[in-house]
Design brief:
With 245 residues, the chain is mainly alpha-helical. The chain has two domains: 3-105, no CATH class; 119-244, no CATH class. The chain has helices spanning 3-13, 20-27, 33-40, 48-58, 65-77, 97-105, 126-132, 140-155, 160-174, 179-202, 216-244, and strands spanning 81-86, 89-94. A two-stranded antiparallel sheet has the order 1-2. The longest helix is centred in the C-terminal third of the chain and has 29 residues, at 216-244. The radius of gyration is 22 Å and the shape is flat.
Length: 245
């Protein structure tokens, strides 16, 4: 069981340690669907590997909503079960339809690709397709920006896929409606990362809490990784700004 599940049990039901599996054995069958979702959702959230495996199968296609419902119906009919593991013990559990629905819907099997807008960049890699299916690109204004933003990404000399990931997060956070918006928001993004780096390097606000428990080397490993992410984000934001002109 994940730390999130154990934390939920402790916070909401005051259950921990050796009481976890007996509590679940007695109470889980009687919980409502939404309670299964609240309790076990961390275990039924597809990770990037699972989403990529689906993307490799889908290719440039997407399922219709009716097809997704049929998938859910067929999976529920299997009456699948799974094992919860905790402290060397296990508990056999019936897989609730709510958890099946959660997992399948988070795969976004019915999310169409902006193939017309991204035509100049095909064939698209599975990871690029996965991010272009993101809801961030569903807005008409966002879709209209795809040719310009992806075209700019191709000219920066940086990794194209990494820039698509960056742009997806950027569009989701800032919701630009025009290239002029993108220029302003990219400049602000780069400046924010640069300010954070400056504060870290000056000691004003380091990327780790000196009071945190753990080894000195471990703290600096976290800090070094954060610095690297900031530097990469700055390079992408500045590169895109230059390419957009």
């Amino acid at each position: 069981m994940s730390p999130q599940v154990l934390s939920y049990l402790l916070t909401h039901h005051d259950v921990e340690g050796l009481d976890v599996l007996p509590w679940l054995r007695d109470r889980l069958p009687g919980l409502e669907g939404y309670e299964h979702d609240l309790l076990l959702s961390p275990l039924f959230t597809p990770d990037m590997d699972a989403r990529l495996r689906c993307e490799e199968t889908l290719g440039e296609f997407a399922l219709e909503k009716e097809d997704v419902e049929e998938v859910l119906h067929r999976l529920a009919a299997r009456e699948a079960r799974f094992e919860l593991l905790h402290d060397g013990e296990s508990l056999d559990v019936e897989l609730h339809p709510v958890l099946i629905a959660r997992y399948v819907r988070l795969l976004h099997l019915d999310a169409g690709l902006p193939l017309e807008e991204a035509a100049a960049f095909r064939p698209l890699s599975p990871l690029v397709r996965l991010h272009l299916r993101d809801r961030a690109w569903h807005r008409p204004q966002s879709r209209a920006l795809i040719p310009s933003l992806l075209g700019a990404a191709l000219t920066t000399g940086l990794d194209f896929t990494e820039q698509v990931v960056f742009l997806t997060d950027f569009v989701r956070s800032h919701r630009p409606s025009s290239l002029a918006d993108c220029v302003v928001f990219l400049a602000n993004t780069a400046k924010a990362y640069e300010d954070d780096l400056e504060k870290h390097r000056s000691g004003a606000r380091p990327f780790f809490d000196p009071e945190l428990k753990g080894s000195h080397a471990g703290k600096w490993k976290v800090a070094d990784e954060t610095v690297a992410r900031h530097e990469r984000a700055i390079a992408m934001a500045r590169g895109l700004l230059k390419a957009i002109g």
